[in-house]
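Running low. Got one?
___
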Amino acid sequence: MASFETSTAEIETSLFITVSGPPGCGATTLCERLADAIGCPYVSGGDIFRELAEDREMSLNQLTAKAEESDEIDRALDQRLQQIAEKWGTANKPFILESRLAGWLAGERADLRIWLDAPESVRLERIEGRLETEAEMRVREVSEAGRYQSYYDIDLNDREFYDLHINTARWGKDSVFALVRAALEEYEPELDEGAFATPAMDV
């Protein structure tokens, strides 16, 4: 099994990668390590959400509450993420985009779409100590799923188009990284027979 030291060696790839999953799935940890190993930019939905809050001179809690009231905030966030996906989808350079809807927003522009997950009990343990409470996490997941269904007719339980679906509770952080690393290093474009189609998303 790859150790942390050996697994941090440089990864040579030009793939546009999306990483998605619910709170506590390990997406941030994986993305930070991938971006470091690949030497590529990494943008998360959380980064853009914080930018929107700063633009509006609002706290994160205020912006979250506003997002519950109308579709303005969600659509502004998704539009920015989609614009980023459009830019990097034609760049032929490595890039990582992380958000719950990253795979949907990037669509056919993405080269590798990853979904991370873990049982709720595990994810709750992982977010212990964060500002978000257990109740808030559960409410946010249900609320977001309902809003995405309402705005875009997206069912977050539809994950058939993801190329990798990993239960991060079954492996440690190093091993999850090693699994994704292996997928990147073993990928050969000439042997690629095609990804699952991703429904177009109008934001």
Summary: The first helix runs from residue 4 to 7. The mean pLDDT is 88.
